[in-house]
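Before a colleague's protein record goes any further, I have to sign it off. I want your independent view on whether this chain really folds as the tokens say. The record follows directly below this note.
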Amino acid sequence: MLHSNAQAVDRAGGMNGPRWLVLTWRLPSSSSTARVATWRSLQRLGAVMLTPGAVILPYSEHLLEQLEWTAEDIVQRGGDAYVLPVTELPEADEEQIRRRMREERQVEYRRIRDAAEKSVRNERELAALRRGLARVVERDHFASSGRNAAERAIKRAAKE
């Protein structure tokens, strides 16, 4: 069963519209393929795990649409999914979530920088690094540090 009431909350919320999106889900225990596919799609979005079966992302129309697609996929695989807009969290919780998101992106930027600093042998490897960087930037919801260093490393590798 898929539930999403983001539009209703958005219309009713006015100035206090959603700030976060939470996806909660349950999949049949026999479905490890579905679990892996779900987790990979959530990682691509930059979601942070709250508990097993619950993730959070900052609110945007794009992320709402992506979570609704993920939820629909979960339902198609025999599970239940709920996309829940969240208008308010305690500031300490919000800061912890933002910090976790920034730290996860920093690790990804560091991997790209390290790969670029090793010898890039050809244009294909360089293109792969650029695509990887673009994917990280897309899920970097809170401007993590490390992006500039990764970009500089790719530019240096391109000159070599």
Notes: Residues 22 and 56 are 4 Å apart (CA to CA).
